[in-house]
Design goal:
A 4-stranded mixed beta sheet has the order 1-4-5-8, with no helix packed on it. Strands 2-3-7-6 form a 4-stranded antiparallel beta sheet, with no helix packed on it. The protein has a two-stranded antiparallel ribbon with strand order 9-10. It has 5 helices and 10 strands; from the N terminus they run ββββββββαββαααα. The chain has 2 domains: 2-93, Beta Barrel (Butyryl-CoA Dehydrogenase, subunit A, domain 2), CATH 2.40.110.10; 99-249, Butyryl-CoA Dehydrogenase, subunit A, domain 3 (Up-down Bundle). The relative contact order is 0.12. The protein is α+β, with helices and mostly antiparallel strands.
Length: 251
């Protein structure tokens, strides 16, 4: 089952007809080509939002084009058209109008998942860089012996460790049933920004080969970009973190 969150302005409309719900609108489903079910956030005329489980084979669901993505191509993102899709009451997630409460619980956990995934990209980029820096030689020496390359890999390792500690701290709060948005958002932003820097530096270390699809680092760079814009851009999350920090310091 895949979770699809549209921007507030483009949410599908939701109407209740007796014991059924009716959905109309368009959504973009991550991994939509692979899934059988997906979750839609929809808005009632009152402005309240709800989450509903949709069967991709339900009457009124039309699968559209597959989006040609820059990275993470294993997740075939698909546009779905919902035309008066009727859903029984048991397809409602939680309570009617309760989407925001559910999302406030889910998103910190999702942020930490994205942070961990971004760290995985960073670790892979560093591992490939180390291997290449040992094998590739210039002026009779492995390029890893040159300070310029060694410093780049040191910065990679430093940022990976920092991202791991921030993510572990956020996960510890989740384990303690503390729903802390800030710690999760900080971990996500730091990890995804680090992943982009580290993957880009890996391409730089590989030189011209890094820009070739014969080597793995160009894919890591494309995949890393996804995290900076998924589940809220880095800028949006930084703005929210900043606003909360200003409120805290003004008390």
């Amino acid at each position: 089952m895949l979770d699809t969150i549209s921007s507030e302005e483009r949410l599908p409309s939701l109407k209740k007809n007796g014991s059924e719900f009716e959905l109309t609108g368009n959504v973009r489903v991550v991994a939509g080509a692979q899934c059988d079910w997906f979750v839609v956030k929809a808005k009632e005329d009152s402005g309240k939002t709800s989450l509903l489980i949709v069967d991709k084979k339900a009457v009124g669901v039309k699968e559209g084009k597959t989006v040609n993505r820059l990275g993470r191509k294993c997740l075939a993102t698909v546009d779905m058209e919902l035309s008066g899709v009727k859903l029984p009451a048991d397809h409602l997630v939680g309570t009617a109008g309760g989407a925001e409460e559910i999302m406030s619980f889910v998103m910190p956990r999702a942020y930490l998942l994205f942070a961990a995934s971004a760290i995985g990209i960073s670790r892979a980029a560093l591992a490939h860089s180390i291997t290449y820096a040992k094998e590739r030689k210039t002026f009779g020496r492995p390029i890893g012996d040159h300070q310029a390359i060694a410093f780049m890999m040191s910065d990679m390792a430093k940022d990976i460790e920092a991202a791991k500690l921030l993510t572990y701290a956020g996960c510890q709060l989740v384990d303690q049933n503390v729903n802390d948005f800030d710690s999760a958002a900080i971990a996500k932003v730091f990890a995804q920004e680090a992943a982009m820097r580290i993957a880009t530096d890996a391409v730089q270390i590989f030189g011209g080969y890094g820009y070739s699809r014969e080597y793995p680092v160009e894919k890591l760079m494309r995949d890393a970009k996804t995290y900076q814009i998924t589940a809220g851009t880095s800028q949006r999350q930084l703005a929210e973190i900043g606003r909360k920090a200003l409120v805290e310091t003004s008390r």
